[in-house]
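Here is one chain, start to finish.
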Amino acid sequence: MRRLSRRGVLSTGAVASGLLLPIMPAAAAEPASGGGVVFGAPPAGSLWTIHGDGTDTTAWWEQALLGIAAAGGGTLRASGEHVLSRELALPDVASLHIEGVGGAILRKATPDREFRLFSGEIASDRQQMRLPMLTFRRLHFVGDWDRRPSMGGDGARCIAVRGYHRVMLSELIAEGFRNMTFTADDCDEVLVDGCLIRRSARDAINLTGSRFVKVINCTIQHCWDDAIAVHVPRDAHDEGQRWATLIAHNQILQANGIKVLGGREVTIVHNQIVSPNNYGIYLGRDPFWHEGNVVHRCVVVAGNIISEVLQNDYLPGQGDVGTGIFLYDPGGRPDSVRITSNVVAKYKPSGLGVRYSDWRLGAHRGERRLFTADGWTDPELIHGHQGRGFGVRILCANALDQTAIVIEANSFANLGWEVERRVEN
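Its structure:
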């Protein structure tokens, strides 16, 4: 590891190109008459600044994170452009804040090797004692999709963390990751606010197992799995556990949509979901993966706009798609569910010679094909796309109970079915 230059270690914390700089503690000020001592800087090792000049700065990040680990917590500020060539493990500290200054860019290198940019896990036996908190703010992440246009494994994520008391992802931009982009598992509280995610080969945001979840004011474009996924985790059945989810005021273009499997107190309101590849909003349980086994109670889906749904003719193997709002819980009995004041509409034309690319949809500018498990396609919309599909589908044991599951004041246009209720045992 390189040693810091004389220019690099400055008590003011100034930034030199391509260098990592610890902020040194200031000397104590002279006490005023009858007053205490005032310190002008945080403890040594708890505040670091890294400026990138477009070269590999991975070693500087590692050194800064080690310094924060030794200090028991701290803040890392990044400016300029950085290339990261291996995974950065977050230290197990009570508080860690990573933030960008002036449009900092973090670019993933070595597309031939999968690794997560940031990963961190808090030991479960220490979680409540230390109440760990994690913040990422104002950073621009760039993945390796363009250099390797395929779907990667779990190691190709951007940020993947687990076990924190509180996680906040705010004002982030992430583009071109070949698996899930932001994931936070088994955390007490997660807030994702004001983020932009473009081109995610799997879920853009997945917060499975986290208990109090808020995803607000985000924009998600061209995601080949769920845009936002929040699930009661696999094989969990604890009805007494608290699971509360708020998803509001997001804009989603060309992704599977919003999926919440299981849990109470679910609020999905005022989202715009344009041209979802699959469903617009999916609630319920996944019997194949055994997720969502805590039955939904106290659910509001209101004021959402879902338009230009793509049908399963173009997505083989995806199951029941082409649906605006889908509540699927075979054998389960959801209660206190209200689906109201939503707009679900289809207006894509169909016919010989009309292709998917005519709607200027695709991975990014200049790429107007559809990415599926079978690779890139540019389907011809000849399967009677216009006038097919469902506005709202309810498939569960008490689907016909219009007191437990209320569907009212929704607007449907150009669909084969407006509402379908079917008992599923």
